[in-house]
Design goal:
alpha/beta, TIM Barrel, single chain
Length: 241
């Protein structure tokens, strides 16, 4: 049974879509994509940049409406990225991926790896995955307020490595969450497991973030640490947000 016909899937029209972005050049490296944001996430990270998508509820968009908008953008977009929230929480994701591929678009996924069994189901329908790795496994529960979250995230990484498709790992970083020792430890862990593409994303301060998430000082992380980490991967990037 493939991902599109799994008994755990739901029709595309039942997707809980919290919003969408018609054009993005930064959500899929090297590609111009539309981004569909699912509502709902099982984790409660205190630094979440999309807190309005934590609850699983309908936004102002429905899939039939977005399908029509995508049809008008054929030839203008390389693909569609499904983000969130946590898109793997939505049973309609396999159906949406299948439809988007049938329309002629490549498919991408942003996930924190909260549902490795669902990731395994949809891997045949994906051209690229951006996996959010938050920290080393033992520190996950403190960040996500969810026991076992580290094991699930790294199980998802194992699936991506075994699948052999195109993916990157990325970590949102801030001095309130990581010191330079933990950043080096996390990078070493990922490199040893076989990750080739990795990015640090500096936490973007905003009105939804409480202290201690103050703006990050210029020069953090130190250039020497960045160079050490870059040497561990085929591709490494520090993103400002």
């Amino acid at each position: 049974m493939n991902a599109a016909t799994s008994t755990n899937s739901a029709p595309a029209e039942r997707a809980r879509i919290g919003g969408w972005q018609p054009f993005s050049s930064c959500d899929w490296p090297g590609r111009l994509a539309a981004v569909v944001f699912f509502a709902g996430c099982p984790w409660r990270c205190g630094y979440c940049h999309n807190p309005g998508l934590l609850q699983r509820r309908h936004g102002q968009h429905r899939w039939p409406q977005l399908r029509e908008l995508l049809l008008r953008r054929r030839g203008l977009l390389d693909g569609v990225v499904f983000s969130g929230g946590e898109p793997l929480s939505d049973p309609a994701l396999p159906a949406l991926l299948a439809e988007v591929r049938a329309l002629g678009f490549a498919t991408g996924l942003h996930t924190a790896g909260a549902h490795p069994h669902r990731l395994q189901q949809v891997l045949p329908l994906l051209d690229w995955v951006g996996l959010d790795i938050k920290t080393v496994p033992g520190r996950y529960a403190a960040l996500t307020a969810s026991g076992g979250s580290g094991a699930r995230a790294f199980a998802s990484l194992d699936l991506l490595l075994a699948h052999g498709g195109d993916f990157e790992c990325r970590s949102t970083i801030h001095p309130a969450l990581h010191d330079e020792h933990s950043l080096r430890q996390l990078a070493t862990t990922l490199a040893q497991q076989g990750v080739r593409r990795y990015a640090w994303q500096l936490l973007r301060p905003g009105p939804q973030l409480p202290q201690p998430f103050a703006p990050i000082a210029t020069g953090w992380p130190h250039a020497e640490l960045q160079q050490q980490v870059a040497a561990m991967f085929a591709q490494f990037e520090l993103r400002s947000g």
